[in-house]
Specification:
This protein is α/β, with parallel strands linked by helices and about 475 residues long. The chain is built from 18 helices and 14 strands. Strands 11-10-9-12-13-14 form a 6-stranded mixed β-sheet, with helices on one face. It has a 4-stranded antiparallel β-sheet with strand order 2-3-1-4. A 4-stranded parallel β-sheet has the order 6-5-7-8, with helices on both faces. Helix 9 links the parallel strand 7 and strand 8. The chain is globular, with a radius of gyration of 26 Å. It starts with a strand and ends in a 12-residue tail after the last helix.
Amino acid sequence: MALGTSMIIRLQMDKKQVTFGEVAGAIGDGGGDVVAIDVIHASPEHTIRDLTVNLPEKMREAVLKAVEALPGVKIVNVSDRTFLAHLGGKIEIRAKTPVKNREDLSHVYTPGVAKVCMAIHEDPQKAFTLTVKRNMIAVVSDGTAVLGLGDIGPAAAMPVMEGKAMLFKQFAGVDAFPICLDTKDTEEIIRTVKLIAPAFGGINLEDIGSPRCFEIERRLTEELDIPVFHDDQHGTAVVVLAGLLNALRIVGKKLEDAKIVVLGIGAAGSACVKMLLSAGAHNLVAVDRCGALHKAEKYDNEMWDWIADNCNPNGETGQLEQVIAGADVFVGVSRPNLLTLDHIKSMAPDPIVFAMANPDPEIDPELAEEHVRVLATGRSDFPNQINNVLCFPGMFRGALDCRASVINEEMKVAAAQAIASVVEDDELNEQYIIPSVFNDKVVDRIRDAVVQAAMRTGVARRTPPEFR
């Protein structure tokens, strides 16, 4: 399960001293796989080729040394395909209206733009129809909880936020822009987002450390009139619920009857707990480093206190090994190697395991798969990937289309049910409980479900034509 990389090696090879087969053999012996070959130049004495090689990240230097050690081989250049994809950034802004002459200029800028400004001044709601606000999301981060990398700062967080903006556009036609803030101060983040909010139709909070993220989202939700969505929390929770609804269908159990253990009560874990409760789960036990959260204990973390008051109806105590006994479902959003085979063997028949720590799950999937009925991870190289990308494009597409003032629990549950519904009865099986992010039904299903839930709960300020 080593992390992989892809690189392009430009080689100059002396035809009298080395064959291409010897070069490919050296790469293969090092664990690399040559997936593409491009001849750049050929002469009677030498050839220059670009070899695209997939290999485990940790084997990169060893493979390069093995190739360089071959007689008659010179490494001209090595390029990492991931770095090449990031050169100059991954997004750009383009004009929708061409400006080719003075008349065009007068419409899009002065003097014509003045009357549009005044129309918005007289009715601020017109900003939704006359500016990018209608379709623009701010992707906001302080860089304190980036992927599995931790606190790497706002500049280093930019590639992730740019990627998020790309996915918004590709999957749902939503424009998004990365805003990486050089502060960890909760009040400063809240104030800054409020100050920039007039330009945006929604705020996607991303990779902000716990527990500050809870306060930031809560305050912004209360103080802004546009939807605020912390994807690390709620995107994960929505997709977990979607996958679990289908996994429970396979084993013939109901959410309200299942015993569920959630390990790791940070931002994502807390949201998973709240989402599962909203969807009808009853017997849910939340576990963190202190063991099972329960009512008899008071915690420094306000969210933990809430979870303790609303979960664990039987007052179970102890560590994971105690409370997982007899559980139907394990949901892990914690750290690698915290779940063992002994834990799984103590669960109820047909156990469902969602081991989502990234990049290494709570248990090695290859070790666990023979002992569980349904297995899901956060990885793309195993079946049933729990991926936030399934959620946030369609969620914001729906919220923008109905101009929702908030994204509430009903909208999140509706999104989860919509994702689950994409997997038809005749397709559903242990290896396919969640659709691919490239399934073109996903965004449309979520969008429609979110719009309907927003209208039902009174937070929609516009009714899309197809719902009139």
